[in-house]
Amino acid sequence: MPGAERTQLFDDWPEKYERWFATPLGSLVKQVEWDLVADFLRPGPGDLILDAGCGTGIFTGDMLSCGARVVGLDLSLAMLRRAGQKTQGSPLRLLAADLLRLPFPDHSFPKAVSITALEFIHDGRQAVGELFRVTRKGGTVVAATLNSLSPWAERRREEGRKGHPLFSRAFFRSPAELAALAPAAGEIRTAVHFPKEESPERARRVEEEGRRKGWDRGAFLAARWIKPA
Questions:
Q1: DSSP 55-72
Q2: Does domain 3-226 have CATH number 3.40.630.30?
Q3: What are the helix and strand counts (H, E) for the chain?
Q4: CA 155/CA 219 separation, integer angstroms
Q5: CA Rg, the chain, in Å?
Q6: Which end of the chain is more exposed for a tag (fewer CB within 10 A), N or C?
Q7: Which residue, 58, 102, 111, 105, is CA-closest to 80?
């Protein structure tokens, strides 16, 4: 999907995106997803992190809360405006740019992360390659996307077949497919093992079981790589 088309696609979604994460289930999903990202990324005071595809800053705010300095990048100015409104006064720099052509020199960041942006990029290898390029040797690269093996992905594929403006243009990847995008071996895990229809109380129990047993069909698929020295 060309950059201009992806920009237009997301300009109309800040309100809907925020409302979903404000629901009881959306709030739980966000917490479960952040727990996995935080375990992989380990943001801390003084860290400089590139958040590529930051959207409205759903996870950017958590990185800032950990004391990190963040460069948030997204194609959509509407998304970036919302992120800026939510994080006023924080050490956040926002930039409109394309994940496929990151406007930074090689080895610019000790840590780079992209959360749920790969779904809308056909050339995932180039996108992950760009994250590696701008990350310092020995640094951490984290990418998260929707797991094609999950019931959540099947639901969204069906919505896409019916013409949903986002999911009709999405690319869902399996753990093996995500791993294959990177030039180095990494660690792959999933989260959000409960179905969308589950009550938050039951969902928490299912999630704990999935985490304990290492299930690989959770909707939220994340990878961590350490850039070779």
A1: TTTTTHHHHHHTT-EEEE
A2: no
A3: 9, 7
A4: 11
A5: 16
A6: C
A7: 58
Q: Which residues fall within 8 angstroms of residue 131, CB to CB, at 6 or more apart?
A: 50, 52, 99, 102, 112, 114, 141, 143
What gap in Å lies between CA 79 and CA 57, rounded to an integer? 8
Residue 228 tokens read as 């070779």
pTM: 0.91
- Tokens at 130, concatenated: 């760009």
Measure the CA–CA gap between 224 and 45, rounded to whole angstroms.
20
Residue by residue, pLDDT tens for the chain (229 residues) are 554 454 455 555 667 777 878 888 889 999 999 999 999 999 999 999 999 999 999 999 999 999 999 999 999 998 899 999 988 889 999 999 999 999 999 999 999 999 999 999 999 999 999 999 999 999 999 999 999 999 999 888 888 888 877 777 889 999 999 999 999 999 999 999 999 888 888 999 999 999 999 999 999 999 999 999 8
Q: How far is CA 175 from CA 61, 105, 130, 154, 166, in A?
A: 27, 29, 20, 15, 22
